[in-house]
Amino acid sequence: MSTGKPSANAISGSHPFAARRSMNQLTNKLFTGIVWLIGICTILFIIALLYTILQKGLPQLDWGFLYGEPSEIEEGGGIGPVLFNSFYVLFISLIISIPLGMASGIYLAEFAPANKFIAFIRICVEGLASVPSIIFGLFGIVLFVESLDLGLTVIGAAISLAFLNLPVLTRVTEEAIRSVPQEMKQASFALGSTHLQTIRRVLIPVALNGIITGICLVAGRAFGESAVIILTGGVTSSGVMWDFNPLDPGATLAVHLWYVQSEAIVPDARLIAEKSAAVLVFIVLMINIVFRVPMWLNARKMR
Amino acid sequence: MQSIASQTLIDIHKLNLYYGSFQALKSVTMDIPEKAITAFIGPSGCGKSTLLRTLNRMNDMIPNTRIEGKITIGGADIYSKEVDVETLRKKVGMVFQQPNPFPKSIYDNVAYGPRLHGIRSKQKLDEIVETSLRSAVLWDEVKDYLKRSALSLSGGQQQRLCIARAIAVNPDVLLMDEATSALDPISTLKIEELAQELKDKYTIVMVTHNMHQAARVSNQTVFFLNGEVVEFSDTEKLFSNPRDQRTEDYISGRFG
Questions:
Q1: Do B96 and A197 touch (CB under 8 A)?
Q2: I need a surface site. Which of A101, A192, A241, B159 has the fewest CB within 10 A?
Q3: CB-facing half-sphere around the CA of A286: CA atoms within 13 A
Q4: d(Cα B253, Cα A42) in Å, to the nearest integer?
Q5: Half-sphere exposure (Cβ direction) of A97: Cα atoms closer than 13 Å
Q6: Does residue B111 have a pLDDT over 90?
Q7: What is the pLDDT of residue A1?
Q8: What pLDDT, in 10s, does the model give residues A117-175?
């Protein structure tokens, strides 16, 4: 300050806009500090976790491990068939659950009447979304292993997994469709579109970001799911690569990880587990990135 | 101002509309002339927007509405069982209060309607997009950015885009539901000038909160109060020499 007057004011604290040292100011600062602290702690924890898993496993990876066949007794077993099964089971389960989940989400958002029965259905869907996965595994056993007498199979695991994901996909789709502004829907109707045209050309494209996020979520969860698959797909694979037979046993990478850690007698079980964990985490991250990059690009274009 | 010499296009006869047990329109009867601008004025909740939305049956989407009476457009009863609402809405376009372009490109916004109704040819679509944007006096501003997002336009441009989108399906009637109330004065003026140009080709029915707008742009003005038509006459006459005391009170600013 060039003149003496304002600084004199500041010292005496009589500046009209000087900070008030009230309780509100203090709690505001305290709260901001706490939020920052918790945020940073959480992020650091996640990064540390990811780093530990990836750093232990990734440097030791080689094609032989990724492509090789698992071994029961000797050292040096790979994860080829179980890794393949992971993708195969995920693929089949998404093929089943995406159309069904989206269809029921769209039904609930656009067509379902606003009555008590539908409200009850909605509560059921929400409840199912939080049912532990092992319950779906038990359901799968009853249906595929006992009633249909198929044994432990890829297809049984995939369909049970689809059931597990269905409620989440339904909810996410319903929410995403509902959050499309009403004005856009009206604009489409006012141009003479049918309900189906509005859903296809406006509601789904606008809601797509939310729906894709939901698909990422369930795909990541399905890829890492073990309980359902242990019960319906078993803990072994057919042991050979590129086995597309849906009636063969369907152990996935996540199940294999559990298996080598707890049951296996191979001497390098720990190493296999570390490498499998790294592959698992890496692929789940990749699923998220691969699904989302096109959405980011699109969102940037549409700003 | 022209007199009511032009032909009637929309004929509303003893229209009652109920939202549940609330009667929003009470025995509304009027003849709306073609290729002119008819303005609906009145205080909030007087039923002017409701009536506008009966003309393209957008009220159908609100549950628990009931309609009695008759509306014909060009002699055809629009509430008859044979009517296909999609075809009706193609003929009776609408522009809303808030500019509501789709989050698509400018081109895709205008081409949306024609595509809905089965036009696939790129050449045909290009032609429709250009003529529609020209009619909406937006072409010169956006012709080099047709692939850009419609959301990048200003509010006034977005509203003109919505007008272009509405006329791209070649309607007979254009409904404007307070189409300028979310816009700044300069954009409002542009839309008003545009409406003046468009009335040579389309029958325009506009709802407006702004009496001065009705006085500036419309040929006929209808004054609503509590779901009833109080007065319907040439705009000039309604504002200079209203027949009804309530109209006079409203236009002189004593209520509303």
A1: no
A2: A241
A3: 8
A4: 61
A5: 31
A6: yes
A7: 42
A8: 999 999 999 999 989 999 999 999 999 988 898 888 999 999 999 999 999 999 999 99
Residues 6+ apart with CB under 8 A from A42: none
Chain A, window 155-194: residues with a beta carbon less than 8 angstroms from a chain B beta carbon:
181, 183-184, 186-194
Contact A206 B103 (CB under 8 A): yes
Q: What is the distance between the alpha carbons of residues A289 and A287, in angstroms, rounded to a whole number?
A: 6
Dist. CA A186–CA B94, nearest whole Å = 10
Q: Distance between CA B94 and CA B99 in Å, rounded?
A: 11
The distance from CA A176 to its chain's CA centroid, rounded to whole angstroms, is: 16
Phi, psi of B231 (to 5 degrees): -150, 140
On the CB side of B145, CA atoms within 13 Å amount to: 16
Contact at 8 Å (CB) between B186 and B18? no
Which of A191, A197, A297, A301 to mutate: most B Cβ within 10 Å? A191
Complex-level ipTM: 0.91
Backbone torsions φ then ψ of B228, nearest 5 degrees: -120, 150
Q: How far is the C-alpha of A280 from the C-alpha of A274, rounded, in Å?
A: 10
- Supply the DSSP symbol for A250: B
Give residue for tokens 């004929």. B11
Do B103 and A192 make contact, defined as CB atoms within 8 angstroms? no
Radius of gyration of chain B (CA): 18
Residue position matching structure tokens 């009027």: B30
Of the candidates B249, B247, B172, B182, the residue with the CA atom closest to the CA atom of residue B205? B172
Identify which of B103, B115, B166 has the shortest CB distance to residue A302.
B103
Q: Coil, strand or helix: which one is A209? A: helix
Query: Do residues B192 and B213 touch, judged by C-beta distance below 8 A?
Result: yes
Quickly list H helices, chain A: 4-12, 23-57, 63-67, 80-106, 116-129, 133-140, 154-178, 182-190, 195-198, 204-224, 227-232, 253-262, 269-301
Instruction: Catalogue the E-assigned strands of chain B.
Output: 8-19, 22-33, 37-41, 65-73, 76-77, 92-95, 173-177, 203-207, 220-225, 228-234
The encoded tokens of residue A74 equal: 């000797």
Q: Domain ranges for chain B, please list them.
A: 8-251
pLDDT digits (tens, 9 = 90+) for B177-205: 999 988 899 999 999 999 999 999 999 99
Q: How many CB pairs under 8 A join A and B?
A: 68
